[in-house]
Amino acid sequence: MESLVVDKATLLERIRTKEAVVGVVGLGYVGLPFAVEKAKVGYRVIGIEQNPRRAEKINRGENYIRDVRDEELRHLVAEGRIVAETDFNRVPEMDVVVICVPTPLTKNLTPDLQYVERVTHEIGRRLRPGQLISLESTTYPGTTEEVMLPILEGESGLKVERDFFLAHSPERVDPGNQRYTTKNTSKVVGGVGPESLEVAVAFYSQTIEHVVPVSSAKAAELVKVFENTFRAVNIALVNELALLCDRMGLNVWEVLEAAFTKPFGIMPFWPGPGVGGHCIPVDPHYLEWKAKELNFNTHFIALAGEINRKMPEFVREKAYRVLNRLGVAPSRARVLLLGVAYKRDLEDWRESPALEVLRLLEADGVAVRYHDPYVPEVQVAGRTYRSVPLTQEAVAGADLVIITTDHSTIDYRWVVEQARAVLDTRYATRGIESEKIVLL
Fold first, then answer.
1. Where is the UDP-glucose/GDP-mannose dehydrogenase C-terminal domain (predicted)?
2. Scanning 144, 199, 289, 378, which has its CA 20 to 30 A from the CA of 207?
């Protein structure tokens, strides 16, 4: 174990000279790209990944995150710059500990902080003077100070701002985005006090091109949940427009494409079968829950969530209209879903609206299969579904093909030619003329 840091000046010097040891808890979509960026500039990174299969893969130099380059990870592991552990025993070696664990919702749409709390207890028992702890997981305003801080001080007997430093710097990862990466996406940082802010800004500035300090950890937490709430609300707006256009007999995609030609005062958002991923379906509920604690009702956020959650039901309704036109009862229908990932060209199916569409159809007796080149299998309502090959037999043998994720690897013109009917919820068939196509 290296000599222990005991004061802020020493920690800042170790950060500046890249001698600091960086710990990253949770090596998923956020944690692993972050670990790689830190290792690339010279830091030694110890990852804590409690999924043993993932930890073993990393220690073999095997990559499982699309936003990480295979050769970079192999090189950094071979050099000893990155190592993965499955426990917290090496926390005392770390100068900086960055937490990137999930923050899901309960069945009642309330915050589930069990992972943050469990990790904080583990770190607190091993906390030593001179460490920076930074939470990157998205959460409600107040988590860092009201949940983490008492645990860290209680477990360690140390005092924040004097013995250790605590900050919140919300992740801004957009999986699959080739333009904006961990390095060139601006980073918001808030500390529980000025000492913590100074150390955290110094740390993140070593690898992030633009660091944005804010007055508190609570402000940084609110920044992130607002960013994703902004997206959720605007997606709900265009989803509601899609519902209205359906009633009016208008093409919502035509309306939106024309509206978005305006060069000012508008920003493109697109409708779809619902919202998915690790942020948009979850984060607004964190803010909504916190607001209720303050006796404040966030009407806009609640309404947006309601609209977005109803979209899979609208897809089901529209699918049945198409089947009815074909003379096929739902209980006898065969449906092929194209795509179950929540986003184009990604293997991530967390909170994907396609899964809810699948569940709703199956509940009505529809025989559902899916094809997704990125997702070999998924679990829905306790049942495992496996992707089927995209063959002429699979497409033509279905009464209806529903495009639920617009992967760019699929030849949609060929699909339309082979299919009996296509319900396109993503406008993947843009430019294809056919009476077989029904748009959302």
1. 336-431
2. 144
> Which pLDDT tens digit goes with each residue over 298-346?
999 999 999 999 999 999 999 999 999 999 999 999 999 999 999 999 9
| CA distance between the termini of the chain | 59
Catalytic status, residue 245: no
What residues have CB less than 8 Å from 225, skipping those under 6 apart?
138, 139, 140, 141, 283, 284, 286, 287
From CA 38, how far away is CA 235, in angstroms rounded? Answer: 34
| Predicted structure pTM score | 0.89
What sign for the dihedral angle of Cα 271, 272, 277, 283?
positive
Main-chain dihedrals φ then ψ at residue 145, nearest 5 degrees: -80, -35
- Phi, psi of 213, deg, nearest 5: -75, 140
Q: Label residue 107 by pLDDT band (50, 70, 90).
A: confident
φ/ψ of 105, rounded to 5, equals: -110, 155
Residue listed under structure tokens 């915050």: 111
> What distance lies between CA 46 and its chain's CA centroid?
23
Q: Which of 35, 256, 279, 368 is catalytic?
A: 279
